[in-house]
């Protein structure tokens, strides 16, 4: 299946969790080291604009960390639902990168940070297997670079026969369950 269609499948799953976040949840801890829900939302709002701009092949500076998380996710999903967003090169803030690599980062925003929010709220989250297969490939492709940049933690050992989502999480440095 085409990557832009898989992102479109991931978006509503994450948006359903985003819709559950209430003001009283902002101080809840997430699986992300040193981030509560408020800090995770600020991260999403800071890096959402450059990722959104990258879908249009435009350089956009990071946001100020405030705003509407749902709206930001909707704009990301809309921008990256276009097949052309995944083609050629693009700009992430000021760095030129392969567009499909940045698209993989966007998918990670939905899948990994969707899971982070779900864990903080203690609600289940599940993505289609096709989405998780792509996510695993994307994390594997960028894991070393991500760890060097502090985006991913050290790989968490997960049994080879563990569910695919657990293997994705472990590869990204998250402890499943």
From TrEMBL:
SUPFAM superfamilies linked to this entry: DinB/YfiT-like putative metalloenzymes (SSF109854)
TM segment ranges: none
Pfam families named among the record's database cross-references: MDMPI_N (PF11716)
Molecular function terms, GO-annotated: metal ion binding
Domain Mycothiol-dependent maleylpyruvate isomerase metal-binding: 13-60
NCBIfam families for the chain: maleylpyruvate isomerase family mycothiol-dependent enzyme (TIGR03083), TIGR03086 family metal-binding protein (TIGR03086)
Protein name: TIGR03086 family protein
Gene source species: Dactylosporangium matsuzakiense
